[in-house]
């Protein structure tokens, strides 16, 4: 079972360690609400990479992840979990979002396990990905409307040295 630590605070506030900020998102190329909107405001170059990726692949992205640098903070990477075709009120059903969340986290964990360093979209990594903290808000529970407890059950399935820092306000 993975370790889930709950932290009260602002996930976007600078931290003294390298980290991957994980969020669930749509395949339509829109960071228009919730944590995605906050990421877009703080890291517009990262949003551009995400939008271009969505334009190229669309709904084929469901169940995958995209790891991109923030282009602003050298110790921050952003992991997009593609869990719904569309955002807003047009989001997918909860059961589909949960299935794609699990697939996308599997994809991210595989990326972390196999990446030995080097550039990601031209940005040099500070350390190997295995040394980055995995941090996320209560994904899926905002705009997608999935009860947090259901996504939490997905996170608890992971074993080994996997731990998640979940931010609450």
Automatic annotation (TrEMBL):
Spell out the reaction equation it catalyses: ADP-alpha-D-ribose 1''-phosphate + H2O = ADP-D-ribose + phosphate
What does the sequence similarity comment in the record state about its family? Belongs to the POA1 family.
Q: Which InterPro entries match?
A: ADP-ribose_metab_enzymes, Macro_dom, Macro_dom-like
Root EC class? hydrolase
Q: Which PANTHER family match?
A: ADP-RIBOSE GLYCOHYDROLASE OARD1 (PTHR12521:SF0), PROTEIN C6ORF130 (PTHR12521)
Instruction: Read off the PROSITE patterns from this record.
Output: MACRO (PS51154)
Highest taxon above the source species: Eukaryota
Q: What is this protein called?
A: ADP-ribose 1''-phosphate phosphatase
Source organism of the structure: Naumovozyma castellii
A molecular-function term among this protein's GO annotations: ADP-ribosyl-[dinitrogen reductase] hydrolase activity
Span of the signal peptide: none
GO terms under biological process: peptidyl-glutamate ADP-deribosylation
